[in-house]
Amino acid sequence: MRTGGLQKLSLIDYPGKISAVVFTQGCNFRCPYCHNPGLVYPHMFSSPVPEQDVLSFLSRRKGLIDGVVITGGEPLLQQGLEEFIRAVKDMGFVVKLDTNGSNPAALEGLLKAGLVDYIAMDYKAPLRMYHRVAGVRLDTGDIIRSVNAVTGSGIPYEIRTTVFSGLGSDDISEMAAELQLMKAENYFLQAFKPCADCREDLAPREMNTEHLYRNLCGFSRYGIRNIPKEEQYHYVCHR
Question: Taking a C-beta distance cutoff of 8 angstroms, is the pair 166, 132 a contact?
């Protein structure tokens, strides 16, 4: 497995857990707002962190952290991912997997084997324009299949969407409706924030938080991240 980085401690990447974060190299999407281009574009790759070094570090953290987050890039492209997760699980850690949902067969295999304890899956755009946001041609049937695998897994999960200038209010409404048809119960929006390697013009032009919350009311767990605290519960859902 190609590991592009290791964050030794995180209090926010695994909900309710203290974790380490393993970043894998390589991704099959080319999202314009990506915060980790150094893990996506091969010409930007740094020398990979030896897998044994990662496992050795984790073995020394038994009892000090709860879990390991595997993110990217896109982890489900990695050869040896299942073996790596098994080694992590054998140490007693819980595992959270971040994925773009483009490889449902690999995802289903990990779920069937009981190797994942929490999943965060990105839902990039309405299905009709998925290729435009993902930056590549793809079979949206794979995205649907992955959502169904996640929602039917019986383990904690979240579906999440980055809100950027390429998505309008009507697009968010359409995505929420699509996910509800797929029986998704947990959906989070996160406002794009410019970073050192990101274009500032990709930030949302404006965010009508009341409208966005109205679209989230049909979900059991929901929220909008990366917005001022005073706006986070501006709209109260009435069920």
Answer: yes
